[in-house]
Structure prediction request, 672 residues.
Amino acid sequence: MTTAVKTWPDVHGRFGPYGGRYVPETLVAPLEELEQAYAAARGDASFQRELDELLRNFAGRPTPLQFASRLTEHLGGPRIYIKREDLLHTGAHKINNCLGQALLAKRMGKRRIIAETGAGQHGVATAAVAARFGMECVVYMGTEDMERQRLNVSRMKLMGAEVVGVNAGSRTLKDAINEAMRDWVTNVRTTHYLLGSVLGAHPYPQMVRDFHKVIGEEARRQILQAEGRLPDLLVACVGGGSNSIGLFHAFLDDASVKMLGVEAGGRGHQLGEHAARLAEAMGFTGARPGVLQGTYTYVLQTADGQIATTHSVSAGLDYPAVGPEHALLAEQHRAEYSAASDAEAIDAARTLARLEGIIPALESAHALAALIARAPRMRRNEIVIFNLSGRGDKDMEIIARFQRRFEALGRRGEMGLVAFITAGDPSLQATESFVLALDEAGADIVELGVPFSDPVADGPAIQRSSERALRAGATLSGVLDLVASLRRKSDVPLVLFSYYNPVLQMGLERFAGRAADAGADGVLITDLTPEEAGDYRRIVQAHGLDTIFLAAPTSTDQRLARIAEASSGFLYVISRTGVTGARESLPEDLPALIRRVRRVSRLPIAVGFGISLPGQVSILGGLADAAVVGSALVQEIEQASSVNAAREALGARVRVLKHAGKAGMSRREPGA
Ligand SMILES: Cc1ncc(COP(=O)(O)O)c(C=O)c1O
Prediction:
C-alpha cells in the first residue's frame, strides 16, 4: 500500500478517488499549459540547479533539525526533534514552493504573479520572490485575515506587492482563493497563479508537494545522522496540507514511521466552530467528500452542499477543504489526523517560547499541542520529528492574551469587563462551569480568587465565599488543575488572584511553572507590594506570566511609578480605600487617581473594588479600560438556589454590565 501511495497522483491528477480538475472551461487550457511546463522543468537539470541555488542562498536551506532537549525533558516522553522551517527567509516553509513556482512562471514567460494568502506567510513569500525576479505581484487576502495578520500585510506592501482585501463570505482564505481564481480567469495570458498549498486543480497538489518534499528529504538524512535510525512519529499541522506533506512524503515507504497531521479544532465541535476536515475520530463532523476550488476532497459543508464557514485562531488553518493527497492518506490509514483547539495551540506556543526560546507560528503550535497531548503515552526511546512550519512574530498580539483583548476592545470602542469569582465556591467543578458562562456572556478577563483563610483586603461577600470554598476542600493546587481543565475549553484570559502565603508555601518556582503549564495568563497577589516581591516578579515573568500589581488612592506618585514599573499585562487600580464590596457610587477623586496612573504607565487600566452597577461601569467607560466586578458576582453565586441558577444569574449580570460598557465608551473623554 505505502509504495503505491508514493507514486500518486495518476496522470489525471488523482490521488485514489481524490484530486482531479474541476474548473470552468476557461481555466483548462492554462492548467494544461502549467502541467506541461512543470513536467518539462522537472526533467530539466538546469531548472533543478537554479532552484537548488535559490533554496540555498536566498531561502536558507538546508534548515536545521534541532534536538529539543528542554521540551523533551519537560514532557518526559519521546525524544523530540524540531525541523526548523521557521528559520527560512520570510519565516515559514512557504518560500520553498514560491521559489519553485516563480522559476516556472519565468520559464513560461509570465510577468505577473497573483496569490492568495491566509496567515500572510504565503503572501509574504510570494511578494519576496516576485521582488527577487522583478515581477508584478498581487496578493488577495480576506479582510478578517488582514486584520489579524497586520504585520504580514505591511511586509508584503514593503516588498512592492499590491494587497487586495476580500470582503466576501467569511473574509478568510477560501474567499481570497475565489478572488484569485477570478483574476486568473480574466488575465490568464499574462499571469501565473501562485497557489500556496497542496490544494486546487491538478497539477497544483502534486507540484506544490514536490516543491516541499525537500523538508522530509533533509529531515530523513538529518535524523539518520543524529540517531542512526528513522523516527517513530512525524507531526505537522494541516491547513491545506503543504508543510505536512512536505515532511511526510520522503517517509511514506517507511512503514515503521507513523504520521500525525493536526488540524484546527477551533473553539468547538459544531460545524462553523472549527476547521477539522479529517479528524472525525475526535468527534469533528461535517466534512464529506465534495468539490471545492478545483479539487475533489474532504470539505466541511452543509447537508445540501453549501460550503460551511470555519473558525480557527490561526488564519493559515482556517479553510474548509484539505489537500486531496491527505484525504487519501487518511482513508488508507497511512497517516492519522487529529485536531488541537485555539486555546491549546496558544498554550503550546507559550510553552515552546518558554522552554526552547522559539516563538512558533500559531499554525505550527497546533501540531505541538497535539504532540504535548500524546507525549505522555509514548516511550522515552521513541523519536519524534515536529515540523515547525513557521515563526510566530505575526501572532504576537494573539499569543499575548491581555494585549489582544485590550486592543480589540480599543478598536471596538468598548469598555472591558473583568469578572472575579472565588474558585471552589461552591465547588471547583461549579467554578469551571461559571467561568465558561462568564466567557460566553462576554467577560473579557476572568480573575479566579484562590480562597484564603484570612482575606484582609476583602469585604464580607468575598470572605464568605472564601470560607465556603475552603470548607468544600479547595486548595491552590486544585485551582491550578481547574485552570488546566478550563484551558482545554476556553481562551478567555485568566488571572490567578491570591494572597501570598499559599503561593509562598507551594514555592515560587513550582507555583509559576504549574500556573504557566496550566495556561494562566497573569498573577495578582493582593498582599504583595513591589518592595516585598523579591524574586517573585522575575520568576513569574520568566514563566511567561504577567505580574499585575495593585495601585491605590493612597499610593504616592512615586509609589505609583514603582507599581507601574513592576506590572505587566494591565494595572489594577483600586477605586477607593476600604475593602472589596458592592457600593452605590464611585468615589469623586477616582478620575484624578486614574489621571495620575496614566501619567506613569501606558498599560491598560482596570478599576475595581466597589463596582457592581451598570451606571458605574458606564461612567468608568469615560476613564478606564476595564471594570473589575467581584463581590456582586460572588453574591449572585451565594444567593442562587442551585449551580444552574447561579450560572444563569452570572451570565445575565455580565451581559447587562457589558452592555453598559459599550454605551459608556461613546462618552469617553478625548485623551482619556
Ligand atoms: C507557518 C504556517 N504553517 C502552516 C500553514 C498551513 O498551511 P499548509 O497546511 O499548507 O502547510 C501556514 C499557512 O499559512 C503557515 O503560514
